[in-house]
Predict the structure.
Amino acid sequence: MTDIKPQLGYIGLGIMGLPMARNLMNASYAMTIWNRTPEKGQPLVERGAELADSPADLAKRGPAVIFINVTDTPDVEAVLFGDNGLASAAKPGTIIVDHSTISPDATRDFAKRLAEQGIDFLDAPVSGGDIGAQQGTLSIMVGGRDGAVQTVMPMLEVVGKSVIHLGEAGLGQTCKACNQIAGMVTLLGVCEALALAQQSGLEMGKMIQAVGGGAAGSWQLTNLGPKIAAGDHDPGFMIDLVNKDLAIVLDAAERAGVPLQGTAQIADLFKQVAAQGGGRLGTQAVAKAIESAGGFSFND
Ligand code: NAP
């Protein structure tokens, strides 16, 4: 029996969206794309993707599943409900999958409004960075109606190596908020461990090696620790995006009545680094705030 694959749409071809859309095309899905800056879609057009003029134009071409991968909550809202947005033209039965990291509350609202038109809205934020997007090894945290999740599962499995359905709409974004809490508070611990090592005459590389193999080992220690020690602040994942994510996390926690003391502290340090012009540096550049507070430099 021939495997007839559904037509797909893709909106938002940035650092994450472009390689994820490319991986879907490599898996033989036909693709219509739209990007605010159309030139960024050119590599996919050269591989046979159709270029739409607007989200509404993309929806009119009738893809069964449409992926969104844009920056923040207002950007997803604009793509869905703005002038020439998807909601103005998508047919009932369409499934929209949002890979952006945005507010869980707004996600529930978008899902409710779209459900009134017979459209499923699934939140599917990702972890794993640009490398995970390129290699198809992302962790994907999914919220939304079970039947719709099952329909898109083969596509999510093309772009991710771990795909977990967490429950109703919004819970994928809540899980991504949990991911950011665990990751960023760990990074603060890594910075402080490196600071004590360096200021006590313990070689930072040896500390990373010794600690990394034990119970305090982490992705941040192994991958970002050596960069902090070397003063390498290139992104990776930019501080501007972390600040966006942590604002979402702190807002969600306040609504849930959960105090997040560690997260609030590292959020302040990220803001300090951004205020000093470091917004486009990688997350590990939060070490600069630790250096300022301690009056030393990691790579003296
Ligand atoms: P990016 O490279 O800056 O790309 C952002 C994309 O969103 C671009 O295509 C941009 O269009 C589009 N966009 C932004 N605002 C828009 C608007 N109002 N209307 C239409 N299009 C708009 O960002 P990214 O790194 O791919 O991140 C995308 C999402 O993934 C974000 O929510 C981010 O937090 C999340 N994420 C990123 C990473 C990472 O390592 N980068 C990891 C996990 C999750 P233009 O091309 O016209 O600017």
User: Anything to note?
Assistant: The longest strand covers residues 160-167.
